[in-house]
């Protein structure tokens, strides 16, 4: 069977299985099976599919038809122009999270500084920021050792030397004197009864990285409450959250004494990131 016909048949199967992008999924999986890029595929689509690669491709299509995420099947996802290795132990990096990177870069005008990424997963946020600010020192932490190992792997293969990673339950493994100009996080923020948990890629992603108590706000509140101990004077805390949580999260920031509290929208126009600058609770001055 020639490649174009194989693609068309796979796309039809994925469409019937409910894939939102069946043709793209089929192309990505065939490129992965053949070890080529999509330009090669468009150029040589009239070639015969080698039997071994065809069998591998059909196994990948079968897994995708059952709902397995493309990023887990190929072991890779692009984020901020970086090709990141992925794993079922971590969330799949998503374009909406680039809003958080943009917000951090906008407040990192100094040539040097320190950024902390909490719950780093693949290292996507930390590595995207570090790639744009080589003079900054970036630390990513995650409670899962598999995630830390994956983030280290991504930093090494991308040649990003100013990012380090550590196993930690949020701030637990940080010393009292470790403080940062910026703290960012994409924490769990989905409520346990959210129907989206039964849809799409999230069905296969780690539950602990998605779901939080108190209607999804538990970890967001915890980070706002604890971050002040590790922020430098005038430092910023920036948190990704659900598109309906912005008002509640801004209220948490304000109740904790943060100033210049605001939200930023993602690619879809939804308020996706909220942020605030830490000052002394009583005087309103920047922390000493």
UniProtKB/TrEMBL annotation:
<dbReference type="GO" id="GO:0003676">
    <property type="term" value="F:nucleic acid binding"/>
</dbReference>
<comment type="similarity">
    <text>Belongs to the protein N5-glutamine methyltransferase family. PrmC subfamily.</text>
</comment>
<dbReference type="InterPro" id="IPR019874">
    <property type="entry name" value="RF_methyltr_PrmC"/>
</dbReference>
<dbReference type="Pfam" id="PF17827">
    <property type="entry name" value="PrmC_N"/>
</dbReference>
<dbReference type="InterPro" id="IPR040758">
    <property type="entry name" value="PrmC_N"/>
</dbReference>
<dbReference type="InterPro" id="IPR029063">
    <property type="entry name" value="SAM-dependent_MTases_sf"/>
</dbReference>
<protein>
    <recommendedName>
        <fullName>Release factor glutamine methyltransferase</fullName>
        <ecNumber>2.1.1.297</ecNumber>
    </recommendedName>
</protein>
<dbReference type="GO" id="GO:0032259">
    <property type="term" value="P:methylation"/>
</dbReference>
<keyword id="KW-0489">Methyltransferase</keyword>
<feature type="binding site">
    <location>
        <position position="170"/>
    </location>
    <ligand>
        <name>S-adenosyl-L-methionine</name>
    </ligand>
</feature>
<feature type="binding site">
    <location>
        <position position="186"/>
    </location>
    <ligand>
        <name>S-adenosyl-L-methionine</name>
    </ligand>
</feature>
<feature type="domain" description="Release factor glutamine methyltransferase N-terminal">
    <location>
        <begin position="6"/>
        <end position="75"/>
    </location>
</feature>
<dbReference type="Pfam" id="PF13847">
    <property type="entry name" value="Methyltransf_31"/>
</dbReference>
<feature type="binding site">
    <location>
        <begin position="186"/>
        <end position="189"/>
    </location>
    <ligand>
        <name>substrate</name>
    </ligand>
</feature>
<feature type="binding site">
    <location>
        <position position="142"/>
    </location>
    <ligand>
        <name>S-adenosyl-L-methionine</name>
    </ligand>
</feature>
<feature type="binding site">
    <location>
        <begin position="119"/>
        <end position="123"/>
    </location>
    <ligand>
        <name>S-adenosyl-L-methionine</name>
    </ligand>
</feature>
<keyword id="KW-0808">Transferase</keyword>
<comment type="function">
    <text>Methylates the class 1 translation termination release factors RF1/PrfA and RF2/PrfB on the glutamine residue of the universally conserved GGQ motif.</text>
</comment>
<feature type="domain" description="Methyltransferase">
    <location>
        <begin position="113"/>
        <end position="189"/>
    </location>
</feature>
<dbReference type="InterPro" id="IPR025714">
    <property type="entry name" value="Methyltranfer_dom"/>
</dbReference>
<dbReference type="InterPro" id="IPR004556">
    <property type="entry name" value="HemK-like"/>
</dbReference>
<dbReference type="InterPro" id="IPR050320">
    <property type="entry name" value="N5-glutamine_MTase"/>
</dbReference>
<dbReference type="GO" id="GO:0102559">
    <property type="term" value="F:peptide chain release factor N(5)-glutamine methyltransferase activity"/>
</dbReference>
<dbReference type="InterPro" id="IPR002052">
    <property type="entry name" value="DNA_methylase_N6_adenine_CS"/>
</dbReference>
<keyword id="KW-0949">S-adenosyl-L-methionine</keyword>
